[in-house]
What we know:
Helices cover 0% and strands 53% of the residues.
Amino acid sequence: QVQLVESGGGLVQAGGSLRLSCAASGRTFSRYAMAWYRQAPGKQRELVASISTVGSTNYADSMKGRFTISRDNAKNTVYLQMNSLKPEDTAVYFCNAYYHRDYWGQGTQVTVSS
């Protein structure tokens, strides 16, 4: 069992940056594949980026070159550095952990103004 708590969301102007953090409880964080998803109003939840237990990363096409996912197993934390933000990045961002099953955080709102 793992609990996930996101932080770092907020309001930012287009072109700005934000860094999201997701702190996980438990002592087996390194066993979990981690990911960030987002859900905009009226849209389905979509994958933003993922990072495996060994640090391999994967990004949705629209985030490549702008977003960076990373993890610090010593701190039980996964990060999402978001640069060159666009209004269409506005969404609730969710942290996801996977080990035999999915675990979700409560989400953090990111709003990008034009």
